[in-house]
Amino acid sequence: MEPLRNDSRGLFTLDDKSKQLIELLQIDGRRSYATLAKEVGLSEAAVRQRVQRLIDQNVMQIVAVTDPLSVGFTRQAMIGIRADGDLRKVSETIAKIKEVDYVVVCAGRYDLLAEVVCEDDAHLMEILNDTIRNVPGVSSLETFVYLRLEKQSYAWGAR
Asked: At 120, phi and psi to the nearest 5?
């Protein structure tokens, strides 16, 4: 099997080595290619190529994840959004808002969920009132203000 290939639905199929690389990088994204190579049984060059291909194909990202509170953002919230019209257009517009770090189109009570990271309550009010409510197609919002981050994990691996 190729390390990474598209199936008939356009989804990627990963071989066991690529899955193992993803899982190891989810634990520690700073692992060296040499260390990864030893752990998965490939050459350093092969690991470098696989990781780059996974990144290039948007299968994964390697990023620094911060605790927003520790870097000056005192307010996070999840916003349930009801919308009229084309949800793709509404979600694309909301995704372009710099304070929004997560957007999903969903089924159920809300059409979209969007997470925002803000400096304070005044900043949150500005984003809700002046930005999101003015997006064409947004009909109503419900905001869930975070009081404490209990768990944030990105270690679900690859199947």
From this structure: -165, -175
pLDDT tens figures, 35-80: 999 999 999 999 999 999 999 998 999 988 888 878 888 999 999 9
How far apart CA 129 and CA 10 sit, in angstroms, is 39
- Residues 69-73: contacts with CB within 8 Å, 24+ apart? 69/149, 72/119, 73/117, 73/118, 73/119
How far apart CA 83 and CA 154 sit, in angstroms, is: 29
33, two tokens:
């290619």
CA 11 to chain centre: 18
Tokens (6 digits) for 80: 């349930």
**Rounded mean pLDDT of the chain?**
90
* Closest listed residue to residue 158, CA positions, set 77, 53, 75, 59: 59
Tokens of 87: 């949800």
Residue 129's contacts (CB-CB under 8 Å, 6 or more residues apart) are: none
d(CA 35, CA 134): 49
pLDDT tens, position by position, 121-137: 999 999 999 999 999 99
